[in-house]
Amino acid sequence: MTETDRRFLARKGEETAEAFLRERGYRVLARNWRSPLGELDLIVEKEDTVVFVEVKTRSSRRFGDPEEAVTDRKKRKLFQVAQCYLNARGWPERDLRFDVLAILMTREGEVVDISHIAQAF
Fold it and tell me: Which alpha helices (H) appear in 46-103, and where do they start and end?
């Protein structure tokens, strides 16, 4: 898979994740939010809880399920970046959680499977 193919798949996965969450009543606060420490794929809100969503999209399970790519190191990084986001918004005391949206799709962008793992870590 080329870099262009990977970027297409990642972008399509994030678009799919955003639509999936909107359909379930989440309000999107930010997409691809960047700080000097890293990036958050999606930040959404539901029932006064800020949800930081890591989107993992794969075209096959050849190297495992998409959610397996969220390593302990990645989790620590996401937590740090989320703290930056909350501090930047002046929301140090907001309820929060971390979810993973694992998406399996064809290389053409057709969704095969979506798994929403709430409170993933």
Answer: 72-89
Shortest CA distance to 61 belongs to which of 12, 104, 4, 100?
A: 104
- CA pair distance 109, 75, nearest whole angstrom: 27
- For 2, 10, 86, 89, the CA distances from 31, given in Å and listed in that order, are 24, 13, 15, 15
User: Residue 82: exposed, middle, or buried by beta-carbon count in 10 A (0-12, 13-18, 19+)?
Assistant: buried
For residue range 90-118, list pLDDT tens digits in order.
998 899 999 999 999 998 889 999 999 99
Residue carrying structure tokens 């999107």: 28
pTM over 0.90: yes
